[in-house]
């Protein structure tokens, strides 16, 4: 196993476990990541997920150059042959927190970008070095990075293949929070627990509206928002959350 998948109450913890390879993704790890994400998506008892890497050197440094890049070359123009993940091919409206415990480079940066919330250890770095290999980011950075930070900063990172430190990532809005290494997982778990205390259908509908809305004009996005609002207004959790608010008590949420 190159990936650890744990269920802690309503929280799924996904850990890329190849520390000697700086948690790079080889074909086996990529498939295991896909399986874990699909399990998280389909398990009604799981409401939040944390994605991280083993050790304190790297979150993930992207594709394993020895094993993964040759495979990617073999399947060029046939990306559908890759197992679906949050990078491409998998719709996942449940929230995912990236706990960035070290270098997030190449595909590792793209994995972090595909998460909804990003918490970084103080020594973490972020970069898109693909141009140095004569290629471009191929797992979403050319699309997600300019949507996450100012275009000029995204262009600087991608064109020059340069890294930035955690504090700079925070300054430009790439990460939500920077903490000491020893506080990284406790903070991520605290955030995940807070998500589990929120009405889960509302969280999922909000995520879907935000992500799908980026592909629409304002009028279309507002129509999508309205349709999703109709769904959550009819949910049991909405009625329970409303009643709990009026009665000044904690709601008993069921995800229904």
Tell me what you see in this structure:
With 256 residues, the protein is an alpha/beta fold. It has 2 domains: 194 residues, 2-enoyl-CoA Hydratase, Chain A, domain 1, CATH 3.90.226.10; 47 residues, Lyase 2-enoyl-coa Hydratase, Chain  A, domain 2 (Orthogonal Bundle). 44% of the residues lie in helices and 17% in strands. The chain contains 10 helices and 10 strands. The chain has a 6-stranded mixed sheet, sandwiched between helices. Strands 4-6-8-9 form a 4-stranded mixed sheet. β1 and β2 form a beta hairpin. The longest helix is centred in the first third of the chain and has 16 residues. The two termini are 34 Å apart.
Give a brief rundown of this model.
By secondary structure, the chain is α/β, with parallel strands linked by helices. The chain contains 10 helices and 10 strands. It has 2 domains: 194 residues, 2-enoyl-CoA Hydratase, Chain A, domain 1, CATH 3.90.226; 47 residues, Lyase 2-enoyl-coa Hydratase, Chain  A, domain 2.
The total number of structural domains is 2
Order of helices and strands: EEHEEHEEHEEHHEHEHHHH
Strands ordered across the widest β-sheet: 1-2-3-5-7-10
**Content-based structural category:** alpha/beta
Supply the CATH class of the largest domain.
Alpha Beta
Radius of gyration: 19 Å
Distance between the termini: 34 Å
Name the average pLDDT: 92
Which shape, going by the Cα principal axes?
globular
Residue stretches low in confidence (pLDDT < 50, at least 5 long) are none
Annotated CATH homologous superfamily of the largest domain: 2-enoyl-CoA Hydratase, Chain A, domain 1
What is the β-strand count?
10
Discrete helix count: 10
Query: DSSP strand (E) fraction?
Result: 15-25%
CATH topology of the largest domain: 2-enoyl-CoA Hydratase, Chain A, domain 1
Bin the helical content: 40-55%
Q: Strand count, sense and closure of the main sheet? A: 6 strands, mixed
Question: What CATH architecture of the largest domain do you see?
Answer: Alpha-Beta Complex
């Amino acid at each position: 196993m190159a990936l650890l998948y744990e269920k802690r109450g309503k929280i799924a913890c996904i850990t890329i476990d190849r520390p000697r390879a700086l948690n790079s993704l080889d074909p086996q790890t990529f498939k295991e990541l896909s399986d874990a994400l699909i399990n998280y998506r389909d398990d009604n008892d799981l409401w939040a997920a944390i994605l991280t890497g083993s050790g304190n050197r790297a979150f993930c440094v992207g594709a394993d150059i020895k094993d993964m890049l040759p495979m990617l070359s073999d399947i060029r123009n046939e990306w559908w042959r890759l197992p679906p993940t949050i990078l491409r091919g998998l719709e996942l409206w449940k929230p995912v927190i990236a706990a960035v415990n070290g270098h997030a480079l190449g595909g590792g940066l793209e994995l972090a970008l595909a998460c909804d919330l990003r918490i970084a250890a103080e020594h973490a770095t972020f970069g898109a070095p693909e141009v140095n290999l004569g290629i471009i980011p191929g797992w979403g950075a050319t699309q997600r990075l300019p949507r996450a930070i100012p275009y000029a900063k995204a262009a600087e990172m991608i064109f020059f293949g340069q890294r930035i430190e955690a504090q700079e990532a925070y300054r430009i809005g790439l990460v939500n929070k920077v903490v000491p290494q020893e506080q990284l997982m406790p903070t991520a778990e605290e955030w995940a627990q807070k998500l589990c205390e929120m009405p889960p259908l509302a969280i999922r509908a909000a995520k879907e509206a935000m992500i799908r809305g980026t592909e629409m004009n304002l009028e279309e996005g507002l129509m999508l928002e309205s349709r999703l609002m109709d769904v959550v207004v009819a949910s049991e959790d909405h009625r329970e959350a409303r009643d709990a608010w009026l009665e000044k008590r904690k709601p008993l949420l069921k995800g229904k």
